[in-house]
Amino acid sequence: DTEVTQTPKHLVMGMTNKKSLKCEQHMGHRAMYWYKQKAKKPPELMFVYSYEKLSINESVPSRFSPECPNSSLLNLHLHALQPEDSALYLCASSRTPPRGGGASEQFFGPGTRLTVL
Amino acid sequence: KNQVEQSPQSLIILEGKNCTLQCNYTVSPFSNLRWYKQDTGRGPVSLTIMTFSENTKSNGRYTATLDADTKQSSLHITASQLSDSASYICVVSGDSGAGSYQLTFGKGTKLSVIP
Question: How many CB atoms lie within 10 A of CB A2?
Answer without folding.
Answer: 7
